[in-house]
Amino acid sequence: MNNNYLKFRLTILNFLQFFVWGAWLLSFGKYLGATLHFSGEQIGKMFMTMGIASLFMPGIMGIIADRWISPNKLYAFSHIIGAFLLYFASKQTGYGPLYAYILIYLMLYMPTIALDNSVCYCLLSRRGYDVVKVFPPIRVWGTIGFIVATWITDMFGWGTKPTQLYFAAIASFVLGLYALSLPDCGVNKSGEKKTLAQALGLDAFVLFKNKRMAIFLIFSMLLGAALQITNMWGEAFLHDFGNNPAFANAFAVKHNGILMSLSQLSETLFILTIPFFLKRYGIKNVMLMSMFAWFFRFGLFGIGNPYGWGLVALILSMIVYGMAFDFFNISGSLFVETEVDKKIRSSAQGLFMIMTNGLGAMMGAYGSGVIVQLFTKNGVRHWPHIWITFSLYALTIGILFMILFRYKHEPEKIKNITH
């Protein structure tokens, strides 16, 4: 396999990895509410499964890949088994059975995000590539895959049907078989073996003894609660405009998935600007930009509608999403990288992920479900009240972080990390 062909194959791998997710993630909340008629609280609990799976499964799967099964085989088997779980999930209409299938599925899917990186790093390094330089252009095709899958689900009208899960199951099965055809990475017999505590980032809890780091981690959890709210509720919000005859035929209602996918397009653009913002303004200010971007993201949803200036507000919300999502994740990761002793750096990054995508995501999923249910009267959701509540939450987090988190910008330190 020549080097260009290898890059092409890994591009397909990343495209399919997020294609599977995009086939159902944005539209799932709409399906649960509009078709299965689950309550806001039930939908919130359903999305908590993502946080539960992110708490411990990536660490456990990482140990398995280090010690017993090569990363690409574990990755492939996870997607093949996941395909069957998605298929059976598509047949469920009861809350309990569907919850169980989605939880088990996500316990397999969420670790594959890290395993995808491991497989790419392994194969690229083996061919002598500079992974830092070569991998990002490959990874960006994952975002493109997510967008394409979202558009397909939207254009075929699967957003309110179980077909979206069946579609994702087929893609997952194809991805699993495809991954088996890649060169084997093998098991790292000679590498340093992590304990379960290290893999889960638990040994990094000592960082809470440092006041600044403790404040950072607590705010990571609080902001992590916001990261998936619009993915959970965005399409459901736009779909509900269809109950008003004045909006029923609007593009934003009939093709809400396409409108929502502008958020992922925004990600691909804003991620390219991060080195400039980090060097010029520093980690703290970039994180603050993210927090206030979430304030605008939710607030623009609150005043938005499918026509005129309301549609402009919705489009602006999609554009600002890239700053809201990427600026915190990447700048937060860099803060950990620059502040933590190298002996526990990997564990500290794992702890950062636990606080944001684990505990934070769980808190956001459940809390948002409670808020949505609170503003639901006689089956009608009062979305402006819901979004303004989320917006005020993000604003409060930003103001408190600005006051409580002390950090001095050192451009040279950022330069060394980003190069």
Order of helices and strands: HHHHHHHHHHHHHHEEHH
Provide the CATH topology of the largest domain.
Growth Hormone, Chain: A
Structure classification: mainly alpha
* Top-tier CATH class of the largest domain: Mainly Alpha
Strand content: under 5%
| CATH 2nd-level architecture of the largest domain | Up-down Bundle
Fraction of residues in helix: over 70%
Strands, total number: 2
Euclidean distance between termini CA atoms: 30 Å
Rg (C-alpha, Å): 21 Å
Quickly count the helices. 16
Main sheet overview: 2 strands, antiparallel
Average pLDDT taken over every residue: 88
Total discrete domains: 2
Shape: globular
Protein architecture, described:
By secondary structure, this protein is mainly alpha-helical. It folds into two domains: 1-186, MFS general substrate transporter like domains (Growth Hormone, Chain: A); 196-419, MFS general substrate transporter like domains (Growth Hormone, Chain: A), CATH 1.20.1250.20. The chain is 78% helix and 1% strand. It contains 16 helices and two strands. The chain has helices at 3-22, 25-35, 40-67, 71-89, 95-126, 131-155, 163-180, 196-199, 211-224, 229-240, 251-254, 256-303, 308-339, 345-374, 383-404, 411-418; strands spanning 376-377, 380-381. It has a two-stranded antiparallel sheet with strand order 1-2. Strand 1 and strand 2 form a beta hairpin. The longest helix is centred in the C-terminal third of the chain and has 48 residues, at 256-303. The protein is globular and about 60 Å long. The mean pLDDT is 88.
